[in-house]
Queue: 2 jobs
Job 1
Amino acid sequence: MAFILLFSVVKIVPQGREFTVERFGKYTKTLNPGIHMLTPFVERVGRRMNMMEQVLDVPTQEVITKDNAMVKVDGIVFIQVMDAAKAAYRVDDLPYAISQLCMTNLRTVVGSMELDEVLSQRDSINTRLLHVIDSATEPWGVKVNRIEIKDLTPPVDITNAMARQMKAERERRAVITEADGEKQAAIARAEGAKQSAILEAEGRKEAAFRDAEAREREAEAEARATAMVSEAIARGDVNAINYFVAQKYVEAFAELARSPQQKTVIVPSEMGALVGSIAGIGELVGLARAQQDTPRPASPPPSASPAAAPVAPRRPRGGVPLTE
């Protein structure tokens, strides 16, 4: 009897638990973790409440969305008892009540959304459920910490349609990406062609500038040569004009001979005279060199008559045959 009396009077509350005390069936106080003494035959422990955070499973249920699509939804809810007396005496079977509350609100929230929104906005659904269920369980002394949707399963036909849609979307993105790549490649090729044309035009410009500069230099040299010939003519030197005319004559005849369409070259009769003149000039140059190589004799006496100067033979005018 003493042992039974001691066991009914002394109560030890473990950590994370709270016990309610009833006196003749009426709630009087709550026992916190530790050792406590009760009045024998008067007070007794009413409810043993778990004050730690608990995880409740929300059963799977079928919900019709706003666009008449059937989906299967389940979830989990994390709760914690904050007031042991309220949780013990204001609701019967607290886990079952919270589970049913979550199911009804989950059906309401998901039913007000379309299927695409349900599949893509789980965070929004969790937030709305948390706000509603936390407000509903506050009078029970329970704090709802989190609600998470664990699984969303659409029908098989909708799943197949979604798979086809995803495949078509990815094919569309692939085509767009390929078109963008071809566009960038065409732009790059056009830019390269543009740069090439610009560089080629700059090269032609530089070449034209160089050609013009060369022609200008050539014209200046030609002008200086013409001025020198003009000065020689003004001084009475006829050989200068003859040399100038002969040079142009030879250059024109050379161009005529180099023509790719010229099969036969007819040598004019004046060419023989030109060749004869060149041969005569060669003989005169040789004679002058011979005179420079021989020693000069002493001056003859005044009475001596000067020797007759040799006269170069004249070549007759007419055509002279040329052989290779």
Job 2
Amino acid sequence: MKIDLTDTTSSKINKALVQGRRAIGTPAVGMVLTLVIVTDEENAYDALKAANEASREHPSRTLVVIKRVSRTPRARAQARLDAEVRVGAEAGTGETVILRLYGEVSEHAQSVVLPLLLPDAPVVVWWPVSAPLDPAKDPLGALAQRRVTDTYASEHPVQELSARAEAYTPGDTDLSWTRITPWRSMLAAALDQVVCEVTSVEVEGEEFNPSVELLAMWLADRLKVPVIRALSAGPGLTAVRMETSCGPIVLDRADGSLANLSIHGQPDRAVALKRRDTAELIAEELRRLDPDDTYASALRFGVDRLGDESRATAPSGGRGGAAGRKTASSDASPDAGSPDGGSAAPAAATDPAPAPAPAPAKKAATKKAAAK
């Protein structure tokens, strides 16, 4: 059932919700939380679809806040609120209210949302795109116990992680972190099967993917070992290689669905590690409403600190090893790979004296043979 309201108020929206419940024969409110989605018109459909699918596990009242941009100064001066109320089959197992804010009312979205929150029920705010730098200080974020963002949707995902670490408040979380939950579970289970000490780790994935960085920071923070970030063509995370005192442990997923777990001294096994859609990620985040201390610890480890360790310990082989070696030698002289061995280039860079006159050809050939 759908009820369209034009130029309305929060009080009229609440009355429409009661009217809709009575019309479909469910006067009782069986919702467990309020999910507030702050998005734009372009991404509203996908976000609402994911929320409706997640409502099968978490029946909730979903409030979709869409701030409409007015084109003329006169239109911007006119405040208006339009709403679309959905109950029954149109809203999954919960209730849905789509709020479109025009003019000055878009700057006070919290005053529209507050009367629509379920009493004595937790509130979760989700920004599918264009999340604020400090979600806890956002007017809508201040109403929530949990604030969900998605670093992958930002313009500079890796740099966004540093901003999230500085502004972190208990209750913040990121769907980029949620995406690596199966990887963390699988790696922890693999280490439980051996009694070995991990010496180094290499995490391989596509470029500009914050989930790869978060997994690398989590491993570095937990294992206290150097972690190398290697590049691949994707999709997403492709491999994790851990060097241990008992031999290597490799979790390789090349196709985005089926992974291969290899532990030294044991037969290889295939494990399901498919990439999950947004509905599954949101459903996982709604299962817990307490602060995620593990995410906070990994986030505060820092991308920059991870980069320093990557340059200090480059791998010697394996897929993606060339990318790690390239990172390790990024500070070297561009002439270091010259056919003459590369030993004269750094010395020339540090010696202020003019270069000596070229030696005879025979002597040069003798020096080259000695260098080889």
